[in-house]
Amino acid sequence: MNRVLFLLIIVITPLVISGQEKAPEKPDGYWCSTTLKIAYALGTLDLIEKKFPVPDDIKEYKDIVYKQIDSTDLKLDIYHSKDITESAPLLIFFHGGGWKKGNKRDYLIYLVEFARRGYVTATVQYRFVDKAKYPAQILDVKSAIKWLKTHGEEYHIDTEQIAVIGGSAGGHLAMFAGYTSNVPKFNEVDDSLGLYKVQAVVDLYGPADLTTEYAREHKLIKGFIGKSYAEVPDIYAEASPITYITEDDPPTLIFQGTIDDLVPVSQSDNLNKKLEKTGVDVEYHRLDGWPHAMDLSVEVNNYCKYYMGKFFEKYLPIKKMEEVKTNKTLETIKYISIDENWIKSGDVKTWGEKLGFPSDKKVIILHIDDMGMSPEANEASINYLENKEIQSAAIMVPCPNADEAINWAVENPSADIGLHLTLTSEWKTYRWGGVLDSAEIPGLIDEQGKLWKDVPEVVVSATPEEVEKEIRAQIERAISLGMKPGHIDTHMGTLYGHKDYMEVYIKVAMEYDIPAMVIDVSREEIAKKFRDQGYPINDEMINAIKNYTLPQLDDFYAVPKGKTYEEIRSKFFDMLNGMKPGLNEVIFHPAIYSENLKTITGSWQQRNWEAELFSDPIVIEFCKNKEFVFTNWKEIKARWDSR
After folding, report:
1. Do β-strands 58-69 and 72-81 pair in parallel, antiparallel, or remain unpaired?
2. pLDDT for 409-419, tens place per residue?
3. Which residue, of 33, 171, 212, 584, has the fewest CB within 10 Å?
4. What average pLDDT does range 60-78 have in this prediction?
5. Does position 6 have pLDDT exceeding 70, yes or no?
6. Is-contact 631 416, C-beta < 8 A?
7. Is the peptide bond before 135 cis (omega within 30 degrees of 0)?
8. In this structure, are residues 579 and 630 in contact, taking their beta carbons and an 8 Å threshold?
9. Which of 95, 292, 420, 487 is labelled catalytic?
10. Structural element, H or E, at residue 631
C-alpha cells in the first residue's frame, strides 16, 4: 500500500523547479541480476507505474498520423501543459523493444513529467522488423522529426530546440537520428533546410556499434538487419550510430548499467570514448549494479529524470518571452529571398492571368491520377471522361492496365490524357517494375525486382541519370502505341523529391514540348506550403524551376480525405471556396468498387467515393459557381502557344 501511494505522488504531484531540486546520489546497485530479482521478489525494489491517466493539466494529442506506408498509418502522440502560450523545446521519445515490439506510451512517465516542466514532448510509433527490416525504422523516426518540425507552430514547438531520447532499440534510433541529420541516405528529402537536425541526444542503454562480437551474434540484431554479419558486414557497420560521429554532432547524455546482459556496458563505454575523442559534448552516467531497462526502478528513474532535466536546461533552455518574440521575427525573415518579380505584389500576374483568364477567376484543372493502375481505376476514369464530367487524366505507364488506358486515349484523341510518370510501386502485394529492364536502372529497383515503395527510398538509391532514362522510356512507350501525351506529372511527387530530379523533369518536358505539372514556388506563401509538406523547396529547387519555359500552376491541391462521403464532399467545397484566383490543379484517384480493389489498397473506400464525387448532382451544382472556370492541360498549352 505504501509503495502504491509513493508512486501516485510521483505521477500526480507537480514538479519542484529543477534548479531547487537536490541532486540525487547514484542509486545503489546489485551484485548481479539474480540478487536484483530477489530484491524485487521480496518487495524491496520499487518499480514505476507505466500506465496511468494523463493528468488534467496536460494536453494530449493522441494517434496523429505522421506517415502512411505499405497501407499502414504510423502515429505519434504529443503532450504539453494546458497553460502553454509560446513555443517551447521539443523532446521526442523512441521506445525500445528490440525493433520488434513495444508501445509509444512506454515512456509516459517521462512524457508527462517534462511536459509539466514546460517542454513539448512527443512519442513515436515506427515499423517493427516483422513488417520491414533496416533501415525502415530509421527512415520512420526521421519522418517523424520532419513532420514535427513542419507542424511545429500547431503544437507550440520551437523547431530550433529539439532533443531525441530513447532506450535500448529506441536509444539506437535516437543516436542514429542525432548523428545522421546530414547523411542523405537516411533522409526523405534534401536537408539544406535543417528538417532533420536536432540539438541534443539522450541514450539509455542503446547499442551503438553493431560490428562488435556481442552484436554480430545477437539474434535481435540479426533480425533487425535481416541477414547475418558474415553475409553483410558492411551493413552492420552502416547500421551503427557510432559510424557517423563527427565533431559537429549534438551533445549527448548516456545512461548505462554495468550488469546489462542485453546491451553490454562496453557499448556505452566505447560510445563515450568516441564522443570525447571527437570533441562532442558528452555526459556519461555509468550506474554500477544495474541491468537493462534499469529506469523501470523508481530510484533509477528519478535519477535519470533529474540529470535529463539538467541536461535539457543546459542545451535546450526554455526561453523567456522576449527571446521567443525576437526569434519568431528572425524565423520569418530567414526564409525571405528578394525576387524583383514579386516584391510588389500588386504588379504580379497569376499564371491564370498570363494565360488570358480573368484576374478574379479560380481557374481549375480537375485531374484524374493513377489511370492505368488497375481495371477499377480505368473504368472509373473512362466513365468520367466519356460523360465529360472530368476533362483531364494521366496514365501510369509501368502499371498492369496501362495499355488499356493508352489504347482508349489513342481512340479518343480529343481527350486531355497525359502521363503520370511513375518511379514508385507503393502497394504491399500489387506491384510493378519500370518500363526499362532492371539492369538499366538498378537504383530504381528494390530487392523484389520492383520499383521502390516510397519516395525516400528512390531519393537515396537512384541517380538522376537513371530517373531520366526511365521517364523518357515511359514517354516513348506511350508514343510507340500511338498516343500523344497532353502533359506529364509525377506519381507520389517523386520528381519533387530532389533538385536533380526536378531538373531532369523540366528538361524532358521542354525537349518534348509537353507541359509538366510544375508549381510556381517563387512566391514564399506557396514555397512554404509545400516545404511544410516535406518537399525540399529551397533556393536550388526554386532556381531550377525558374529555368522552365512552359506554363506553371499557381497552386496545387488534392481532394481531401474523410471518414464518410459527406465529409469528403464538405471538405472539397471548403477547399474550393478557400482557393485563390489563378491556375490551380486538383487531383483525385477514382476507382470503382470491387473485391479485387480491396486487396490492392487500403484506400479503396476513399477511391470509390472519389469515383462518385463529380457525378453527384450537388457537386455539379456547386461547380457552377461563377468564380470557377474549369479547363484542362490541352487548353492551357494552346493558350500558351498562341500568346
Report:
1. antiparallel
2. 999 999 999 99
3. 33
4. 94
5. no
6. no
7. yes
8. no
9. 292
10. strand 628-631
- Helix pair 604-613, 375-386: axis angle to 10 deg: 10
**Residue 68, SS3?**
strand
Q: Residue 358 and residue 239: Cα distance in Å, rounded? A: 56
**9: helix, strand or coil:** helix
Q: Which of 87, 143, 168, 297 is catalytic?
A: 168
Q: Is 374 a catalytic residue?
A: no
Find out if CATH 3.20.20.370 is the number for domain 345-641.
yes
- Tell me if 592 sits within 8 A of 376, measured CB to CB: yes
Domains of the chain: which residue ranges?
Answer: 2-317, 345-641
Which residue type sits at 257? G
Model's pTM, two decimal places?
A: 0.53
| Neighbour count for residue 624 (Cβ, 10 Å) | 7
Most confident region among 49-63, 164-178, 526-540 by mean pLDDT: 164-178
Residue pair 154/147 in contact (Cβ under 8 Å)? The answer is: no
DSSP β-bridge partners for residue 79: 60, 121
Task: Give the 3-state secondary structure of residue 249.
Answer: coil
Alpha helices per DSSP H over 19-122: 33-41, 108-116
498 flagged as catalytic: no
The C-alpha cell 450537388 sits at 618
pLDDT over threshold 60, residue 324: no
Q: Answer yes or no: 168 catalytic.
A: yes
Q: How confident is the model at residue 191 (pLDDT cuts 50, 70, 90)?
A: low
Catalytic-role residue among 140, 203, 260, 369: 260
On the CB side of 105, CA atoms within 13 Å amount to 10
Residue partners of 556: CB distance under 8 A and separation at least 6: 517, 519, 530, 584, 585, 587
Is the distance from CB of 350 to CB of 554 less than 8 angstroms? yes
The pLDDT score that the predictor gives to residue 531 is: 84
Element (H, E) at 144: helix 136-150
For residues 503 and 488, what is the distance between their CA atoms, to the nearest angstrom? Answer: 14
Termini Cα distance of the chain: 84
| pLDDT of 597 above 80 | yes
CA 33 to chain centre: 40
CATH number of the 2-317 domain = 3.40.50.1820
